[in-house]
Amino acid sequence: MVTILHITNDGSRSDVFVSGLASPVRGILFDLVGTFGYGMLVTTYGGQIYGVNSAGIHKLLASVGEDTEGMDVAPLGGSFGPFNGQLVVMSEVSGLLRAVSPKGVVTVLNASNPIVGSERVTFVPLDLGKSGSTLEGLYEANYATNVLKADGKQFEPYKGDAIVSTELGDRRISRVHWNGASFDITVIGHFPSEAEDGVFLSPTMLNPGCPVSQDSRPSAVTNWCWPNCGKWRGRPRIDLSQ
Questions:
Q1: Lowest mean pLDDT among 72-76, 157-161, 197-201, 231-235
Q2: Deepest in the core among 35, 68, 134, 210, taking most CB within 10 A?
């Protein structure tokens, strides 16, 4: 049986959080945009894409028929035109980039220009560069040697665009941008080794704070946090200075 484990924040114990998935899990993402109810999103080897609520109950959103790993939600007000707010997933073998709407409608975005060997897709945060911190930027696993960091200033012209990393061939880094009628895909760099998982560190992650009071906390976030933590604390702070 395919499952997802929940590990406590102190690492002292774990338990099965999700069970009964149709095929092995390839990726897990929490929706921070809100179009998928701030829930957990899961991609699988068989191409099934699930939404999971805070009780661990999963629901099939869509099935694309092939191994699907990398994923991210396009920011609202970003550069993905009619697909802003949708989940975007990558399939390594075919190189196809697909948008999945909250209702499960699947649209292939690059049928005529596949990115074969694609490992990860991440949207450039709209607030990138606003903190002024040199910690901001793209952090990516350079398998199997180290973790590389690209300065955030290099990606500021691409805010709201998707950045796709590949692990095969010339190990290219591509920018995917909606031009108003279709998607332009441009190679903007290369990795020295295989690109694996990565993340943009943005001002929101550096200093998340708590922008709402306990009484005005968003109900969608309440479903995940409030019953479990017992106290409204906002998102956990990330400290990379140590």
A1: 231-235
A2: 68
Q: Which residues contact 70 (CB under 8 A, 6 or more apart)?
A: 27, 43, 89, 90, 118, 119, 120, 121, 122, 164
Q: Cα separation of 60 and 41, whole Å?
A: 10
The answer to whether the CB of 80 falls within 8 A of the CB of 162 is: yes
- Asked if 40 and 49 touch (Cβ cutoff 8 Å), the reply is no
Contact between 88 and 98 under an 8 Å Cβ cutoff? The reply is yes
Domain coordinates in residue numbering, the chain: 2-207, 212-242
Structure tokens at 239: 């400290």
CA-CA distance, 190 to 170, in Å (whole number)?
A: 7
HSE-CB for 13 with a 13 A CA cutoff: 3
Question: Across the strands, what pairs with 237?
Answer: none
Fold topology of 2-207: Neuraminidase (2.120.10)
| pLDDT class of 66 with cuts at 50, 70, 90 | very high
Strand arrangement of the beta sheet that strand 97-100 belongs to = 71-73, 87-90, 97-100, 106-108
Per-residue pLDDT tens over the stretch 82-122: 999 999 999 999 999 999 999 999 999 999 999 998 889 99
Beta strand pairing status for 97-100 and 87-90? antiparallel
Q: How much is the pTM? A: 0.83
